[in-house]
Amino acid sequence: FTKQGHVLLKVRIRRNTKNAVRLEFAVEDTGVGIAPDQMGLIFDKFAQADRTTTRVFGGTGLGLSICKSLIEMMGGKITVKSTQGKGAVFTFDIKLEHAHHPHKVKHIPDIDITSLHVLVVDDIEANRLIVSGQLTEWGIEHELADTAGHAFTMIESFHKKGMPFDIILLDQHLPDMTGTELAKKIQKDERFSKLGMVMFSSFASGEMVSEQKIKEAGFKAHLTKPTNPLRLKNVLLYTKDAVEHGNVSFYMSSRVFSSKDEYSIGDARLTEADKTANAVLRVLIADDMKVNIMLATRILKEMGYQVDIAENGQQAFDMHVKQPYNLIFMDCHMPEMNGYDAAVAIRQYEKEKGLAEAPIIALTADAMKENQDKCYACGMNAYLTKPIKKQLLVQTTLNWIRKEE
Questions:
Q1: Which of 152, 176, 241, 296 has the greatest CB tally within 10 Å of its CB?
Q2: What's the half-sphere exposure (Cβ side, CA atoms, 13 Å) at 202?
Q3: What angle do CA 132, 212, 270 make, to 5 degrees?
Q4: CB environment 225-247: b (16+ within 10 A), e (fewer)
Q5: What mean pLDDT is predicted for residues 373-390?
Q6: Which stretch of DSSP H or E encloses residue 287?
Q7: In which element (H, E) is residue 317 found?
């Protein structure tokens, strides 16, 4: 529900005693907000501020109901404040006992990096302040910019003053130009050849940039948001070393790759030969939730399949008509056209054209039998509940896509 701006989590100690601590959590967003007449309904099961099946945003209306139940089970209470069109803040507090065996925090390298001069470029204030707070804690001199133009002006200005930046943390999505465009501009300017550039962006931002394009733009590393102190310091250390010693390798803080010839996905073992055979098969994921898309896409691409994305039922129908898919994963609750109607439209089209039916697998958080029956009645072949379980997704894919080979 937050297309622009931020979603920010804040935690503070309200009371700390010998045996327990009361923590207050606040989740703040700059999204669509909630109308006053809906404030009392949003914690009900399967309830949303917009109840229509063709609403702009997806979801099932279960999240807040589950949160409320869990918080109350822990002796807490959840509240919400909202201004429609500006966002909302959900707040809850819970009492927790002190851990008897405290969790060991991953060690952050004790290396002095206070000599660094860093520029943080991000148009979202919350992101700038979070990174700024961590850099300040480490004693690193840094500056903040909210646009690409502002950033380039600062780079030139500090260079003229004899105080050049060592590293720039650069967001991809800026209002005046993209991060990669600014990076290419910097890369072409010989004055800034010693400036280490780090792509600082989110995979869920809607416009993922390939690793190859990031490298070509001159970046030394890619740090994904949200980050943590360990990952941030590792990237700073790596980038500093890469610039000083001319290291041409690339650091990606969330790399998930395997170079093995054979590896396990769930209970299925796939060889490179299997992946080569799968490369001719096309899978469509129709879902409006980016987290679901990212997970399913990664798994299916690991298996070697071609994967395309549709953000609503109408797109899924149009894409299948243009070039039929070997398998379709269909979320039931999407904007513009929901998954039920899309499945009906696909089956009707296939019948009219005399085409073989493409397997359609329902993806939904609603595990009620009535919903399963509705999926089958609409012409879907199988049913998977969210959250997506890797082993089930893999096995279902292998079971159904082979029917189309």
A1: 296
A2: 15
A3: 110
A4: bebeeebbbbbbebbbebbeeee
A5: 86
A6: none
A7: helix 313-322
